[in-house]
Amino acid sequence: MMVDYIELNQKAWDERTSIHFRSKMYDVDGFLNGGSSLKEIELSEVRDVDGKTLLHLQCHFGLDTLSWARKGAIVTGVDFSPKAIKKANELKERTALQGEFICADIYAYEQVATSKFDIVFVSYGALNWLPDLNAWARLVSKSLKENGCLHLIEFHPAYDLHCGEPYFSQVAPEIYESGTYTENGDGLKMQMATWPHPLSEVISALIGNGITIDHLHEFPFSPYNCFEGLEEKETGRFCLKNTVHPIPLVYSIKGTKKGKPSGV
Ligand SMILES: C[S@@+](CC[C@H](N)C(=O)[O-])C[C@H]1O[C@@H](n2cnc3c(N)ncnc32)[C@H](O)[C@@H]1O
C-alpha cells in the first residue's frame, strides 16, 4: 500500500502543535504580553511591512504571522495542521489582531489560490516537508503581485550534510521517528517524512517560476537552539560548537516577481 506522506506529516504536526504551544522556545506568553516572535534575520531583511499584504506559507500556529500583523502587515497564514490553525485563530482572538488563517496543504492551496500579495514569507524548517519544490515555487510566484517579494529564511542544508544526512534532492523521502525540537519535546515519538533540497534546487525552482533572485545570504548561526551540538555564542545566535571553521546554519533568499518589460 502507498504511504500518504503528507497525511503522515500532518498527523505529526498536529501532535507537535500542542507541545510547541506550551514550550519555552515558542514563548506564547511573551507574545500575548505584546512581544514578537520574529528574529534578527527576518527583522533586518523584511522591512516596511506596514499596510502591505503578507502571505505566510506553513505558518504553524501563527506566532510569526501575527507578529507581522503587529507591525502593520495585512496577514494570511496557510498551514495543513488543523490543530495549528485552531491555535492561530485562538491567538488572533486573544490579541484582537487581524488576519486570516487557512487550513490547507500548500499543494492543494496552489490549485485554488487566486489572491495576490505584496510579500510571501516562508521561514525556518518549511521546505524539508515538501516533496515538490517546483510546485511550491509556482505557488509563490502566482501568489505575488508584480514587483512583490518572496522572503525565504531557511535552515541551511549544510547542517544536514554535517550530520551525515543526504544533500541532493531525491524522490523518496527520508523517514524518521523522533521527538520534536522544543525543550519539552522528547516524549513524542512520531514518524515523519522529509525531503532534502540543495540550494541550487531552491534557486532554480524560483527562477524557473519567474522570480528574480535579489540576494542569497548565509549565516553561521541559527536564532533557534533546535539542533544537536549548538551553543549560544552571542545573544540569540546559536552556532555549532567544536568546529574549526563555522558552517552555515541558515540562509535567506529575497526574490522579486518582475513585471513584463513595457512593450512586451
Ligand atoms: C517548522 S514549522 C515552520 C515554523 C515556522 N517558521 C513558524 O512560524 O513557527 C513547519 C510547518 O509546516 C507545516 N507543513 C508541513 N508540510 C506542509 C504542507 N504540505 N502544507 C502545509 N503546511 C505544511 C507544518 O504543519 C508546520 O506548521
Strand content: 25-35%
What pattern of helices and strands is seen along the backbone? Answer: HHHEHEHEHEHEHEEHEEEE
CA radius of gyration is 18 Å
List the ligand species.
S-adenosylmethionine
Strand count, sense and barrel status of the largest sheet are: 7 strands, mixed
Can you put this structure into words, describing what you see?
Helix content is 32%, strand content 27%. It is of the alpha/beta class and 264 residues long. The protein has a single domain (5-26, 50-257), classed as 3-Layer(aba) Sandwich (Rossmann fold). The strands form three sheets. The chain has a seven-stranded mixed β-sheet, with helices on both faces. A two-stranded antiparallel sheet has the order 6-7. A two-stranded antiparallel ribbon has the order 9-10. Strand 1 (53-57), helix 4 (63-70) and strand 2 (74-79) form a beta-alpha-beta unit. The longest helix is centred in the first third of the chain and has 18 residues, at 5-22. The radius of gyration is 18 Å and the shape is globular. S-adenosylmethionine binds at residues 6, 9, 13, 58-60, 63-64, 79-81, 84, 105-106, 123-126, 129.
